[in-house]
Design brief:
Radius of gyration: 28 Å
Number of strands: 22
CATH topology of the largest domain: 2,3-Dihydroxybiphenyl 1,2-Dioxygenase, domain 1
Strand content: 15-25%
Largest sheet: 9 strands, mixed
CATH architecture of the largest domain: Roll
Low-confidence stretches: none
Helix content: 25-40%
CATH superfamily of the largest domain: 2,3-Dihydroxybiphenyl 1,2-Dioxygenase, domain 1
Distance between the termini: 63 Å
CATH class of the largest domain: Alpha Beta
Shape: elongated
Length: 572
């Protein structure tokens, strides 16, 4: 800086050193200059830092230099390191920030050659990939490592390779976090750091990393079952809908008021033990009828539980009757329950051991549904990153790009979480920030319940549609103008479009394949079923159809402001 600005800067630093002494701290962060009056030049900056190092030494403190991604002359950690190297002072070191390096797409491997003892502190942040001004991006959209799109693992691998063993600081500027729960944010930060360092330890096995031992991420093979809690009255409505979908009651629990409905590899459990001292009864009391639990098929249920606990997930258990199997479980979105099942003797035979078979008139008389394609969970938008990290840190999954779902009541953000190999586990996470959207209303009236819809797979959508019609299934009616637009968009023949319209089938297509969807009408204020067929390599979820689905659901739903009638009904 020109004089007298330079002299004032040194005087300010001296006074800060005095304050540091009173506070008992010994490290000051100095970032690269953004002033229009700043001079450039690495040698000039190194000389200033050498002088500042002498002043710091006199106060028994240290100074660290950080390159801001938007710095006027220094915006690269390589230049910052060169300045520190030339300053050659024991009290002067480098401060690294993952955002400043990765936002400018600087190769993090350039960090590996820096001596670890010259790195004074490391700041970590992730962020979604957004094309915007670097300063605004940094100040409003940072998130925890693992919650964004930046290669923070590669950055931390390079830092670990230097031998750095100092503290890791979470440098998170985020509008949601500013008003969020301090405890929830702290838990997110703890999980993100453990997950990050676990990744580093597995990718850099020769490096010493201080991370708790835990199993690797768990392969999620799919949904083994879904469980509803309801009362005897609402059970009749739910059973009737399942019957039109082709499900048959095939089992009754030996000890509890629990029934099993099956079709293909799909298992639906209906729990009407609403008066007992069970989690199901508590969930019903709070949420009404809801899908409060699901079972995930994994390679090793015990290992899955260990991994989840290591990353801070809350374990779930409740008393069992004699002969019942204790299934490992954790709590998830909206206080739901995730059970882990594998092919061990106890867990593989649970359906035969705990359920008495119920004769089925004609097992072949179903709707050709084969498996659970995906489940959809709805949560508050400010909790969405928490639950995305929950799934991706525990399970061997990946995040699909986030999309915006347009609802007349506002915007719903949706992001899919998928097993690395398919068919496997698929889940869509929908974040809402007001109760005016269809998803937001479901969340508000269900008092936080999470599973809003369940999608079943079929290999022949038209055969399934015909079977559903024969069983009295009432699909969500789709307006004719949707099909007119569909013909124009994809060049569909009128005959094919008529087949879709006849069964209220929605359609999508991309370069990989085709997608067909049939929706049920809603139960309560927002829960629904979906039937899908994926052809060839289609991997999406029909996002372009969501506005039409929401419009159709709104036409049939209770208008806002009209009070609900009844107690204990299905709220979502």
């Amino acid at each position: 800086m020109p004089e007298p600005m330079r002299a004032r800067g040194f005087e300010r630093a001296k006074r800060k050193f005095d304050v540091m002494g009173e506070l008992g701290t010994d490290l000051m962060l100095i970032c690269s200059n953004v002033s229009p009056f700043a001079f450039g030049g690495i040698d000039r900056a190194a000389s200033d830092f050498q002088q500042l190092g002498e002043l710091a030494a006199a106060h028994a403190v240290r100074v660290g230099f950080e390159a801001l991604a938007w710095g006027r002359h220094v915006n690269d950690h390589r230049d910052a390191w060169e300045i520190v190297r030339r300053a050659d002072h024991v009290n002067v070191g480098l401060i690294l920030d993952s955002f400043h390096t990765l936002a400018r797409k600087i190769d993090p491997n350039t960090i590996r050659s820096i001596p670890g003892d010259k790195i004074f502190i490391v700041q970590l942040a992730d962020a979604p990939l957004i094309d915007m001004d670097l300063l605004y991006w940094s100040r409003h959209f940072r998130n925890m490592p693992g919650e964004g799109d930046l290669p923070v693992v590669d950055f931390m691998r390079a830092v670990a390779a230097t031998g750095y063993d100092g503290p890791l600081s979470l440098e998170i500027f985020n509008d949601q976090f500013r008003g969020g729960s301090p405890r929830a944010i702290a838990e997110d930060g703890h999980r993100s750091l453990i997950y990050l360092m676990d990744c580093v330890a597995r990718l850099e096995p020769d490096l010493r990393t201080d991370v708790p031992a835990m199993p690797n991420r768990v392969r999620a093979a799919g949904v083994e079952f879904l469980e509803f809690t309801t009362d005897e009255e609402q059970k009749l409505e739910l059973e009737a809908l399942l019957s039109t979908l082709g499900f048959a009651k095939t089992g009754k629990h030996v000890n509890r008021s629990v029934d099993l409905f099956t079709q293909g590899d799909i298992r639906i459990v209906i729990n009407t033990d609403t008066k007992g001292d069970t989690f199901a009864s508590s969930s019903y009391a709070v949420h009404g009828t809801n899908a409060y639990a699901y079972g995930m098929k994994v390679d090793d249920a015990r290992v899955a539980g260990d991994r989840a606990r290591s990353l801070g997930a809350a374990t779930f258990s409740e008393p069992r009757f004699g002969g019942e199997v204790a299934v490992p479980a954790i709590q998830g979105v909206g206080n739901s329950v995730i059970y882990f099942l594998d092919d061990s003797d106890d867990l593989k035979t649970i359906w035969d051991r705990e359920f008495v078979r119920v004769p089925v008139a004609d097992p072949a008389d179903d709707a050709r549904l084969t498996r659970v394609d995906h489940i959809a969970q709805t949560t508050h938008y400010d909790e969405m990153l928490t639950w995305l990290l929950f799934y991706t840190s525990i399970f061997e999954t990946r995040r699909a790009p986030m999309i915006d779902v347009i609802d007349p009541g506002g915007l719903v953000r949706s992001q899919a979480i998928e097993s690395l190999t398919q068919p496997g586990f698929r889940l869509t996470m929908n974040g809402v920030d007001n109760r005016k959207t269809f998803a937001g209303k479901f969340l508000a009236e269900g008092f936080g319940t999470s599973i809003q819809h369940i999608a079943f797979a079929t290999q022949d959508i038209f055969a399934t549609a015909a079977a559903l019609q024969a069983r009295g299934f009432q699909p969500l009616p789709i307006s004719r103008n949707y099909y007119d637009d569909l013909e124009a968009r994809f060049g569909l023949s009128p005959e094919f479009s008529d087949r879709l319209r006849a069964h209220s089938i929605l359609y999508d297509r991309d370069e990989a394949g085709e997608y067909f969807q049939i929706y049920s009408r809603t139960l309560g204020q927002g829960f629904f079923f979906e039937i899908v067929e994926r052809r060839v390599g289609y991997a999406g979820y029909g996002a372009m159809n969501a506005p039409f689905r929401i419009a159709a659901q709104r036409r049939l739903s209770r208008p806002d402001g009209v009070p609900k009638v009844g107690v204990g009904k299905m709220r979502g």
